[in-house]
Amino acid sequence: MPHVIVKLWPGKSEQQKIRLAEEIAKDVMDVSNYGKGSVSIAIEEVKPQDGAEKVYKSEIVNNSDKLYKKPGYTM
Q1: For residue range 19-37, what is the model confidence (pLDDT) as tens digits?
Q2: Beta-bridge partner residues of 43
Q3: Which residues does 52 contact at the CB level (< 8 Å), separation at least 6?
Q4: Residue (of 29, 52, 56) closest to 40 by Cα position
Q5: What is the DSSP string of 10-36?
Q6: Which residues contact 34 (CB under 8 A, 6 or more apart)?
Q7: Catalytic residue among 2, 10, 48, 71
Q8: Which of 23, 33, 55, 75 has its CA 20 to 30 A from that of 4?
Q9: What global pTM score does this model have?
Q10: Which domains occur in the chain, in start order?
Q11: Is there a catalytic annotation at residue 71?
């Protein structure tokens, strides 16, 4: 049941998004021993001007205890 949501700025091609989703899914399957049918990946585009409010504050700062990989930036 792993479901991964990737939030990124607009501008990546459909091919880049597909490749990113495939690579993330492959790593999730390899590390967690889940089958291909168990993993789902969503990609949500967030405008740069919305990143601080919609991602950094609400999902990174307010959920820092859940982060296994923290960013090297602050906003």
Answers
A1: 999 999 999 999 999 999 9
A2: 6
A3: 75
A4: 29
A5: S---HHHHHHHHHHHHHHHHHHH---G
A6: 1, 2, 28
A7: 2
A8: 75
A9: 0.89
A10: 3-66 (3.30.429.10)
A11: no
